[in-house]
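[SOLVED] Need 3D model of a two-part complex

Original post:
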Amino acid sequence: MIEQIPQILVLLGLIVSAVLTYYFKDLLAATLAAGLFSFLISLEFYILQAPDVAISQAAIGAGLTTAILIIAIRATGRYEEGSS
Amino acid sequence: MSRIVRTGADFLYPAILIFGLYIVAHGHLTPGGGFQGGAVIATGGALVIVAYSYTEVSEWLSGKVLMGQEVIGLVGFIGVALLAFAFGQVFFFNYLNASGSLFGIPVPYGINAGELNTGGFVPLMNFSVGCEVWGGLTLVILYMLSGIRREES
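Solution:
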């Protein structure tokens, strides 16, 4: 039971960060929440003893995707418009 | 971006570069390999590209150099594999394994810390893939940023 506590915490963090990504109207904050989701899921891969996948997920998901989304936000607008 | 972000990127970029090259070089011993190490290095490149403006970045990084890096990686990969025909073997035969030359010593027996100088041509494949992924993923970010500047001007 005691070794499942980190997994439970990581899964709760995953759910919270996914819900935050949906509800943020500030797109930069939503991008950072998506980066947090990627970081937590790479941590979960590491806990499940797949360090190879964890390195890929941390580099591609938390690094490159966040950078591409931040560049896209710089090109367009920072706040979500239209349907509330 | 602000001065804090730029100074942080200046300090972090060499560390990320060294760590990515470490992952590439130890690909046949530890978790990771060519793709993972190249992606880590491209993350460092993305950090610099996001921190600085396009005019500064385009002086340091050229798209042609990155594309050439990609071509060198792909040609190196297929060239190392095709070189097996010169030794009278089939395609992708590991001709360097236990040959005593580059990366060619036999794997030590028993529990050990891992000998870097083993694996035959697997480290060469890792270097090729790392070079290619480094160029390709950095090129994606660079072209993304260049698209912005063209729209603004």
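Edit: Chain A touches chain B through 16 residues (CB under 8 Å).
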